[in-house]
Design brief:
Layout (H helix, E strand, L loop, with lengths): L3 E5 L16 E2 L23 E2 L2 E2 L2 H14 L4 E5 L11 E7 L5 E6 L7 H19 L4 E4 L4 E2 L2 E2 H4 L1 H15 L1 H7 L10 H7 L7 H13 L3 H13 L3 H16 L8 H13 L3 E5 L11 E6 L10
Parallel strand pairs: 5-7, 8-12
Antiparallel strand pairs: 1-6, 2-5, 3-4, 6-7, 9-10, 11-12
Helix pairs in contact: 1-2, 4-7, 4-10, 7-9, 9-10
């Protein structure tokens, strides 16, 4: 079972479980177009490929090529219902992960069958960018089993927040590709505004902090962000409003150019989310460590002070 990344609208207060269905349909690749002989030599046209019946642009085809070349296996893809029954809306638009055998998997919500090729390509491309980071050795993070909360093991009750934080950081890493392809304009992520209104009266939480940070980083509409700010104030979510702004500032200012740059940003974000200090270390037992590291999150123990004699 592999760690995953997802394309989501702002999550609900109730954390969504990970979708780890390993049944996927194999998508055939279209062979490269042959180069053309000319009197003046010109570069061969870039080839394109198809996934889920969608013809990918040359750039997105290149992302797919890189992932498969680094993993040594073809990427599996499928349309699937990604939200739990009764969710009411399509919150999860896409999911990507590596299986225990190191196979890259892309899952796109069923609703995109009817939304047109460009919208489907936007979600496929987004998930391929997450997979590309895995193939390039960018880490994921997992609570160590001994980290406990009042509700139980952190890995059982808080891991979804960790996954969302990592996704926000990764979105910043490949934001230029999303803008260049226009994918950032093709998928509407702003329905979290209505969801926040409907949650009035619920307790403030780390999920609301992540919701606000996502809006501050990814909504391209100052008016809607101001409306979300008013909703947070009306709901009494002053902590998530302040922390969401701080978290967005941390991610916005981050300079991530290599896998080792992720952990410092992640730890600063965790300190905002939980107002506690954490450390991370590689999981030596992780089955996919030859592809990318899984970092175990541990609570930092306060330093003992010497008693004065």
């Amino acid at each position: 079972m592999g760690e995953y990344s997802s394309t989501k609208r702002p999550p609900r207060a109730k954390a969504l479980g990970a979708a780890f269905c390993l049944a996927a349909s194999l998508c055939a690749a279209v062979p490269p177009a042959p180069g053309l002989q000319r009197v003046v030599e010109a570069p061969a046209p870039r080839h394109t490929r198809a996934l889920l019946g969608v013809r990918l642009s040359a750039e997105v085809s290149g992302w797919l090529d890189e992932v498969e070349a680094k993993l040594g296996r073809e990427v599996y893809a499928e349309f699937a219902e990604l939200d739990e029954e009764g969710a009411g809306e399509d919150y999860t638009l896409g999911v990507s992960y590596l299986t225990g055998a190191g196979v890259g998997v892309v899952r796109v919500d069923e609703s995109f069958r009817a939304r047109g090729a460009k919208a489907a390509e936007a979600v496929i491309g987004h998930e391929l960018l997450h997979l590309r980071l895995r193939a390039r050795g960018y880490p994921l993070f997992l609570f160590s089993p001994e980290v406990m909360t009042m509700r139980g093991r952190a890995v059982d009750v808080e891991q979804s927040n960790v996954n969302d934080l990592v996704s926000l950081i990764e979105h910043r890493v490949f934001a230029s590709e999303m803008r260049r392809t226009g994918f950032d304009k093709l998928v509407d992520l702003t329905n979290g505004l209505g969801a926040a209104r409907r949650r009035r009266g619920t307790e403030d939480s780390q999920a609301e902090t992540l919701n606000y940070a996502r809006a501050a980083l990814e909504w391209d509409d100052a008016r809607l962000l101001e409306e979300l700010t008013r909703v947070h104030r009306a709901n009494g979510w002053s902590r998530s409003l302040a922390d969401g702004r701080r978290l967005a500032d941390i991610i916005r200012a981050a300079n991530v150019n290599a896998p080792g740059d992720i952990a410092p940003v992640f730890l600063r974000g965790m300190a905002v989310l939980y107002r506690a200090e954490f450390t991370v270390e590689p999981d030596r037992r992780f089955a996919l460590s030859k592809i990318y590291p899984q970092m175990l999150i541990r609570a930092r123990r306060p330093a003992r002070t010497r008693r004065r004699r």
